[in-house]
Structures are given as structure tokens and as C-alpha cells.
Amino acid sequence: MGKTPSMAHQVICAVDSCFKEGMDKHSLKASGDKKPHMIFGYQHKMNIQETGIDLGKYCKEKFGTKLLSDIKHEHIQDWLDSKAATCTKATISQYRSRIIKLEETVKNKYKNANFNWKSKDIKQPESYKHDDKIRTKAFEKKDYEKLMDHINDPKNKVHTQATKAIFISYNYGIRVGGADNIKAGDIDMKNMKFVVTEKGGRKRTLDIKPQHKKDFEKLIEGKKEKDYVIDIKKDSIIKGVRRLIVAAGLGEKYPGHSGGIHSMRKAFATRLFHELIENCKSERDALDIVSKILGHGKRRDKMLIDSYVYKEAKKKS
Where are the domains of the chain? Predict the structure, then answer.
């Protein structure tokens, strides 16, 4: 008999089998083709796998479970309850959502196994930790300038590809998964526009700001139309940006991977929101515009305020 796969291995295989990168989930929903087990975003896939591995480790240590099928509803509730002391309300909510998705993936992968976690019935515990709403800080303007000073100092050895991602995300709010997809041919210097392809293959056209004309010319310098502007992929960008932030002395203020490239996107969202309010836009209209530019749909007010926009941080980012 072959060796029984670990729960971590089971989780990775189940989630990988349901990962459909490049497919547009919105089109799928519109067509009525419901596939609750499918995962479309790379980061979402990684988050679900990490959560599933953590759940498996907890259940093995506390309840002696060896297979995902051994995990019971009450085990998952106990695991989620254990997060209350160290996680915010928003983080606990995300854990619960990931477990619901994980159950769909394992049921789809291991059809003959008896999975009945009843994860949708899992109750979210109250968090004992202060929830400041936004888990990742928006990168403040003074810190961005400090980071740029470090990058532009000839004495420092910097990751040139990561600096491109920082520039694009901080000034245009592009996801790291969109920045690494921009090709030289997507940048139209004549009309001062560029196209970014993001989640599900969706494309957005953005205006190049006049003050960034030389920056974009430099991005495509010496490149053919099909060449990527950033020569490394998502994981390497995230690691490279993190190293730059730490090297610039900002690692403690922006800790972990969450304090990296995504904080640039949040800074852009916050800055744009306040600019719109100052130009006499209502809060609802301002949030709709920010949502559209970030690549989300309209009427996502709560999501934007909870995850992106520091309403009180008018002058910081």
C-alpha cells in the first residue's frame, strides 16, 4: 500500500485542481454556470491553501486527525474560535470564507470521500483584538519619498524590476498581478494611455499622467511590443518590494508581506478618494469612481472603506 498523503498535501492538491487562472468569474456567474469550487485568483488560491494547512495542523495536534475527511464540524469551530484572541474581526471573517471555499474544493477533488464539514454553519467568534478595519497600512507619502530616496541613491544596490512595480502600484493603484502582465505594446505614448490586464483576464485602459511621461518612456525603452515591462513574476515582485522596504528602514512600520506592494495600492485609493471629495464629489460618487479605477464594480462602498480607503488619512498617503 502507498503512503497516506498528509493533510497539507491533500489541501494543496484539492485547491490546485480547482484553480482556473485567467477565467472571468463574473462572466461565469452571468451565464448561470455555478461552480462554487472554482478559484480564479492566484492570491486567493494561496490564501485558501495556507488556511487549510493551518487547519489541518491544528486538528492533528489537538484531535489526532490524519485525513481531511476525519475533520469534523466541531473541530473547525474550535479552530476558528482559537483565532479570536489574536485576529481581528475582518481576519476571522476571511478565515471562515476560506474554509467554506476549501470544503467545496475537497468535495470536488475527493468525490468518494465523506466530507460533511457543514462549514457554512460555522459561527464567527467575536474578536478580542482591536479591529482597525484596514489590515494593511496605506503607504504614507513621506515614507514613499523615503523609499524613493533609498532607491535613487547610487550607493544602494536595488531591485530594478521591483521599483517598477512600486511606481506603477503607488501612482496608478495597479494590483501586483496586473503590473506583471503589462507589455511594452500595452503602453501608448502617442495617446498617453496604457492597458492593464488583471483578474479573470479583464482589461482596463488608464490615462498616463503628464508628469509620468518620462517614467513610462523609460519603462518601454529597448523593449519589443510583446516584452513584459517587468521581467519577473508576481512572487518575485512581492519579495523584491519587501526587501526594498526593509532596506529603506521601513520594515517595522509596514510589517510582513501585507505591508508591501498592496499598501501602495491602498495609498493610491485613499489619495484618489480625498482628491474627489475635495472636488465636490459626494462620498458615494467618490467611492464609485475609486472602485472602478481599482478594477472593482460599483456600489462596493463597505468593501472599499473596510479594505482600501482611510477616510481619516487625508494628508498621509
Answer: 7-121, 141-180+230-307
